[in-house]
Amino acid sequence: MRSLPFVLALGRAARERRLAILLWILQLLPALLATVPLAAFFSATLGPAPSGDRFLERLDLVLLRDLVETNRALFGALGPVFGVVAAIALLANAFFAGGALETLLRPDRRSLALRFAGGGARYFARFLRMGLAAVPLAALVGGLASAPFWIARGALSFRAEAAKFWLGLAGATAAALGVVAVLLALDLARIAVARDDARGGVRALLRATRSLVRRPAAPFSIWLGLATTLVVAVALLGALRNAVGLGSGGAILASFLLLQLAIAARAFYRIALWSGEIALAPAAGGGSRIRP
Amino acid sequence: MTPPVRRALGSLALAVAGAATGHGALPKEAPRVVDYSISVRLDAEKKEIRGRQRVVWRNPSSDDVPDLWFHLYLNAFRDNRSTFHRESRGRLRGDEAPVDGWGWIDLEELKLADGTDLLPALQFEHPDDDNADDRTVARVALPRAVLPGEELAFDAVFTARLPKVYARAGYFEDFFAVTQWFPKLAVYEPEGLRGRETGAWNCHQYHANSEFYADFGRYRVEITVPDGYVVGATGRRVAETKNADGTTTFVHEQEDVHDFAWSADPTFVEVVEPFVAADEVTPAELARIAELLDRDPEEVRLRDVEIRLLMQPSHRRQIARHLKAVKLSLKWFGLWYGAYPYPTITVIDPPQDATGATGVEYPTLFFNGSKYAYHIWPFSGIHEPEITAVHEFGHQYWYGLVGSNEFEEAWLDEGFNTYSTAKVLDLGYGERSSMVSFLGLEIGAAEVDQLGTHHERRFDRIGARSWEYSSNGQYGFNSYSRPALVLRTLEGILGETTMARVMRTYHERFRFAHPRAEDFYAVAEEISGRDLDRFFEQTIRGSGIFDPAVRRIESEPLAEFRGRRAAETGAAEAAIVTEEEAAERERAAEDTDTRGWRSWVDLRQLGEIELPVEVELRFEGKAPERRIWAGDRRWEVWTLDGPERLLSVEIDPDGKLPLDADRLNNALRTRDDRTSAHAWALRALAAFERTFAFLGL
Question: Considering the entire predicted model, what is its pTM?
Answer without folding.
Answer: 0.91
